[in-house]
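Lab notebook, design round three. We kept the backbone fixed and only want residue identities now. Task for the bench partner: fill in a sequence for the structure below.
Input structure tokens:
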């Protein structure tokens, strides 16, 4: 691989890991630069798929899944055409299939990605999310803990463990875990969002609002964050603020 191609790719991955709308836009630029330099570089196509998947997902919330999911699918398939043994591309396609509700195909793609590279943290993480969707919580936690063993300080891995714990009804554990994750990087929006959710579901409304206000700032008032704000205000009996959040949404 050419050094300039790999440098552009690494810069893109750095921005992608920050998981904000602005950083994902920067990441797309770097990955396209890598592809312009070498159209046959499969990792850059798979990484573009990852970007489009994140732009169309609920926690980032900066774009429509109808717009971004087909782009992610096309880039993942392109990467697999170049390199059928790309674990990253199989994982990206598994992500697409999950949110298309093609769950059997999604699981097959994730298992293939993990088989090709057992150290693929994201494949295990996204497979855990699929398992969570199927209410297979014990399996989901096993996969997410395996991802954490591979990358103990990953913000997204630790965030998703807390998210799974919330859905499994283990809210106190989720709050404890997500609070530690926020402490790793207070400016990381994706940890604030599920922490606010877990606190809200536990009836700790004032604390939830505090974290949600930070998430609103960090995500430029994304639709998903505004929708949670409306729900939280309604739960608190603050109907006027709930109506204002709905109008803004």
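Proposed sequence:
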């Amino acid at each position: 691989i050419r050094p300039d191609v790999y440098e552009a790719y690494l810069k893109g991955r750095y921005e992608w890991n920050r998981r904000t709308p602005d950083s994902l836009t920067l990441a797309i630029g770097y990955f396209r630069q890598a592809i312009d330099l070498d159209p046959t570089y499969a990792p850059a196509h798979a990484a573009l798929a990852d970007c489009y998947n994140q732009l169309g997902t609920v926690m980032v919330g900066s774009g429509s899944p109808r717009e971004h999911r087909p782009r992610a699918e096309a880039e993942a398939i392109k990467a697999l055409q170049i390199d059928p043994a790309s674990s990253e591309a199989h994982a990206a396609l598994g992500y697409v299939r999950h949110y298309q509700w093609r769950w059997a195909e999604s699981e097959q793609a994730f298992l293939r990605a993990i088989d090709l590279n057992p150290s693929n943290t994201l494949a295990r993480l996204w497979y855990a999310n699929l398992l969570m969707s199927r209410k297979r919580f014990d399996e989901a936690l096993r996969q997410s803990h395996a991802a954490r063993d591979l990358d103990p300080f990953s913000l997204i891995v630790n965030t998703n463990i807390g998210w799974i714990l919330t859905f499994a009804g283990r809210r106190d554990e989720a709050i404890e875990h997500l609070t530690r994750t926020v402490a790793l990087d207070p400016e990381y929006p994706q940890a604030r969002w599920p922490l606010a959710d877990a606190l809200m579901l536990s009836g700790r409304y004032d604390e939830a609002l505090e974290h949600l206000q930070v998430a609103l700032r960090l995500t430029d008032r994304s639709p998903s964050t505004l929708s949670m704000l409306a729900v939280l205000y309604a739960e608190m009996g603050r109907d006027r603020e709930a109506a204002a959040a709905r109008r803004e949404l």
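Keep this in mind before ordering anything: The two ends are 45 Å apart (CA to CA).
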